[in-house]
Amino acid sequence: MIKPLRWVKQGLAIWRKDLQIEFRTRYTYSALVMFAVTTLVTVSFAIGGFTADVEITAALLWIILFFSAMAGLARTFVAEEETGTVTALKMAAQPEPVYLGKYLFNVTILCSLALLVVPLFIMLLNISIVLPLAFCAVVLLGTLGLAGASTILAAIVSKAGAKNSLLTVLAFPVLLPLLITAISATRAALGGGLAAEVRSHLLTLFFYNGVAVVASLLLFEYVWNE
Amino acid sequence: MLNQVAVKNLSKFYQQRKLFTDVSLTVPDQSVLVVLGPNGAGKTTFLRILCGLTPATAGKVEITINGQILTPEERRAQLGLVTPELELYGELTAVENLEFFARVRELPFSRQQARELLEFVGLKGRGHDFVHTYSSGMKQRLKYAYALLHQPHILILDEPTTNLDEAGVALVDSVIRRQRERGIVIMATNEPEEVAYGDQTFTLG
Prior knowledge:
heterodimer, A: mainly alpha, B: alpha/beta, Rossmann fold, four-stranded antiparallel β-sheet, 7 helices
């Protein structure tokens, strides 16, 4: 079997194992959901009965998703290091499938979080979406990008002392281009921007995802074996 | 030699602290190497370097199977490790742990094989219990099932009888004897009974 196919097969096994553990402990998902819902409710109370400007709502959505992701995603690697299972995993799996498995797990967690938070966000903040399909595409690509870059950063952070708190600091400069693009694209989708503008933002998000995953796959071996 | 582990001029420093320098030895097929040394001499680090888990400061480890020197990727299929620092997933059952590692190693693995392996390590009837409910001795037995799952040619054991009762020590005895017939055992210990298994010994520190 060719190498990438073997990576995917082994990566799926790691993804399945992480999901199985998550269903039993609900550690990561609880942390993410609690943070997201608390922030969302606070924002909706702060805004009150007013309808916020699209510039503000677009930024608020990505602030909630970014900090929610930071609240839980570091756990994927930190748990392996803290419980000592990392040695067993290193002895059995190549580094690349480990990255793929953890990336798929983070994608699953973040997408399910987005499925819960985004409708709530629209409802509580009384938002109308002019370009719904473009909005969905932005949320999907933005979420994938968050997961892609956060996964390798979580692996780096798991080797350090401060762990969870360090992820936000490390991730911010790496995720800034993604966040700025996602906010601009969301603003355009909510406010009815030009189709060409939305398309160009979506392309940027698409390529950010590609670069994040490919660069992570290339670098992960050095992080994992450190 | 068709099958052997060759350690060549291996050195390990932690910053300025010397752990060991210029270690060279060869472990031939169907033999047991016992690594001795006081606490802090670097026995565990030495075993971790053999497994590729820790980089050496200088020197190298060559693992030859069927006349071919293995790449780091190929080594994973030929090495089995039991060490106190290695843990299995507490939120999974023993069977689920074995199934997971079999999937990652792309081994055909059935529930029947899992049952047989667990019976061999003395965990018959406990395969569907969560690992976090196991005693430390049972966890140690499960580590043997994990290490033997892919029938490795080289078995690396760090303090092999840690937490084990008399029956557990007998299990380790049968594992070492079986492994010596089909491959190589490298173990770090200071227990006189375990030192007796060694066809050769090497003292660190």
